[in-house]
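Two proteins follow. First one:
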Amino acid sequence: MGNERGSAVADPTASGPDYNDLSDTAVAYRWVPRDEGRENRPAILAEFATGLEEYAAEQGARLVGAMTVDFPRLRDLPKDVRRSILRTMWLQERRWWRWGDLVLVRAWQHTEPA
């Protein structure tokens, strides 16, 4: 049994979006309780797809290509992204002792003008 989280992050095709230029990329994050992620995967992916579509529509763009999902390490993300993700975690789960059960999931998809 390999470490699924580690292999997903180490996969060069799933290395993440380019944070220096997000003009053509929609990105979404979600903290998922470890057990819920295993049991409710289709619902989580549907939620990501809806969120990415809404973001693209707000930007006057449409999604192209396939949605990519991975499990980034928080410390590898840019500092400003980390801050907002930690703030989201705090709003989602105020019981600090449960934070160890949360897994960060990231989805992104390329966009083009509508």
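Second one, unrelated to the first:
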Amino acid sequence: MDWTTCGLMNLKLGPEIPEVPKKPQIILHPISLDEIESEILSRLSLNVSLRLIITIKNPNYGSFKFEDSIASLIYHGNNSVGEIVIEHGIVPSKGELNTRSYANITGDKLVKSPYFTKDIEAGNLNFTSNLTLHGKVKMLKIFKIHATVNSYCDISILVHSHLAIQLSCHSKVRL
């Protein structure tokens, strides 16, 4: 066996780049619930701003550089009542990124929903959020591959406590 054969065997048996990317983990951390404005006498309305820290954990070997994005806040399946703005960033390989953001909830749309009164009486408002991050994965500091991360979150705000928020997110990567 010559040195060339040994080198080729070593390359074949060495570490491989995974073909299927692992799912990133996106976690929303509420900081505060601000600017709660309501008018009941003239007309029923409500506006809310929720400040967040968004943690994006990357379990993959390549870093992910993504563009600015906006996630929609959906109330009971089809009513878009707000948005979460996410600024561009880079998540290092096998690392995480914490970024500050905010969610603006337009109360007029929320209050007009037939579910609103029942949800307030029950003590919680349930939302879903759909987020798509477009960007590039950088592998081995050489290859740049276009990637899209889709994330779906269930968000529940407990009405009687301003910062009691329950979250659950699921993400998928598409190259």
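SUMMARY FIELD: The beta strands are 25-39, 45-57, 63-66, 69-75, 79-86, 89-91, 96-106, 124-139, 143-158, 165-174. The first strand starts at residue 25 and ends at 39.
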